[in-house]
Model the fold of this input.
Amino acid sequence: MATTDRAALAALTAEVVECRRCPRLVEWRERVAREKVARFRDETYWARPVPGFGDPDARILLLGLAPAAHGGNRTGRVFTGDASGDFLFAALHAVGLADRPVSRRPDDGLTLFDTYIAAAVRCAPPANKPTIEERDTCAPWLALELGLLARVRVIVALGSYAWDAGLRLLAADGHVVRPKPRFGHGADAAVGPYRLLGTYHPSQQNTFTGVLTPAMLAAVLRRARELADELHG
Done:
């Protein structure tokens, strides 16, 4: 059975958090950390690139867009400390992929099972919109990460941006699908040895309006578990 080189993954994480390749993103993440918002005025922000985290031997990779300015950019862990993360961790716990339904800080003991979470872009971007140049500059980090996650065969894209990022990631590894699979909630595409699943992003814009419900997200995560079992025989 393939296993992930934990030392190599830790070394990659150490390299990611030192990245300063995108001047606009560096300026923004650090400015947000200085100016803060009232509710976090007494906190020290991470204000660096945010690496992936989770089970090194995961078969499922959850892929998001980028850290939130006052979420991952503050706590140092993607989907941690914001409403999107609260929604996501509750769903992961409901289907047995996390040991608790809430995680607000990286040191609170959260454990993910068979799951690794990463973002396509590792720094919080202004208006949550990285430029194409920033997107492409950051893409090699995800490619390196996937290359080290030896058991991942299912990628769950949290939103259309992550869906496209997942397709570009796999195409760069020689796995191209034509015509391009279309994103949608519950979308399911076979791409080389991988399966790419889509779900609406757990943003407040989607969860407050009912576009994405807990049951909808849980259904996609259960499907990811089923596919992981099938693909690993």
Observations:
- The beta strands are 53-54, 60-64, 115-119, 154-158, 188-191, 194-199.
- The chain has one domain: 6-231.
- The helical segments are 6-16, 23-35, 72-75, 83-94, 132-148, 160-172, 204-207, 214-231.
- The mean pLDDT is 96.
